[in-house]
Amino acid sequence: MTSPDPTARQMDLLLPDTRPMREELEAGAMLLRAFAKPCDAEYLQALEHVARQAPFRHMHTPGGGTMSAAMTSCGTLGWVSSLQGYTYTTLDPASQQAWPTIPPSLLSLAQAAAQTAGYAHFIPNACLLNRYQNGSHMGLHQDRDEHDTTQPIVSLSLGRSGIFLWGGPDRRSKVRTLMLEHGDVLVWGGPARLHYHGIKGLGPHAHPLTGWTRFNITFRHVVAPPTPAPQT
Ligand code: MD6
Ligand code: FE
Fold first, then answer.
1. pTM for this structure?
2. Orientation angle between helical segments 104-116 and 40-53, nearest 10 degrees
3. Ligand 2 centre distance from Cα of residue 199 (Å)
4. Which range marks the domain in which residue 47 is found?
5. How far is residue 147's CA from residue 143's CA, in Å, rounded to a whole number?
6. Atom of ligand 1 nearest to the CA of 214
């Protein structure tokens, strides 16, 4: 990766953002552009607060690999990948402590975004934090470990842009590519709740608040029977 061209970045920042502020990607999926921007620094502080208690780590995959995005969680339940599979746990396997609580600022943001997208009474109890750096990606997947498709997922992007892949109900559905930028919130539920999606890579520019790093925070409501904590 070459170093950022500060002039190019400056120019970008000066260009007006002409993207529609609310875009229904399809029934059930709403993209709220720049929804989180007004309090972006507060959300990044909240993220750092979580990561001090439950540090980002590269989890193992059931297939024996390692995830290229680093992850951690907050909430009553945290998502864990290991050689044993994917599950939600009440304890952080790294510390055997409860996951940190969801910071109030992030909880409010998630609920406001859900409400705006037409999902009243969203009660997230699990919040997965992803950290992407050069070379990180996330293959096409469904989010189906929550065992509840009645509530949406709310996804907040912070920092460097991510190249988001958005497919359909099965792996071979046509895939659309869109940029998720700093402050964008994607609310995803109803008929689109189990659609395939992924992150192909990162945008070409560093971000003033996070440099070459992209963060994504997804809020979920999980009813899966929790397991204490698998071996890592
Ligand atoms: C990411 N997001 O944006 C990964 N899942 O880094 C997800 O996997 C995701 O954005 C479900 C709903 C929204 C998402
Ligand atoms: Fe996902």
1. 0.91
2. 130
3. 9
4. 20-146+158-212
5. 9
6. 6
